[in-house]
Amino acid sequence: MEQLSQFAPFLLMFVVIYFFMIRPQQKRAKAEKEFESNLKVGDKIITKSGLHGKIAELAETTVVVETMSGKLKMERSAISMEMSAALNKK
User: Fold this and answer.
1) Which of 48, 56, 55 is nearest to 80 (CA)?
2) Predicted confidence (pLDDT) at residue 90 exceeds the cutoff of 70
C-alpha cells in the first residue's frame, strides 16, 4: 500500500500528460491523414508554406499543384488542412 502511494503522483502526472498532450496530438494526426486521403483533383488548397493553388494530379504520396506561375510537384503532407478548409469556406 505504501509503494502505491509513492507512485500515485507519477501515475496521475502521466494520465494528465496523456489527456492534455498525447491524445490531442494523435487526434490531430489522424484528422490530417484523413484530410490528405480525401484530396481530389480540382480542390483549391493552400500549402503550409503559403502557396495557393488547385490540385492538378494526385499520386500516392505526392500532388501536382497548379498555381498562377505553373505547376509544382510536392508532398501531400505539405498541404495545410486548416488553411485549405478556411479557403473552401469563402
Assistant:
1) 48
2) no
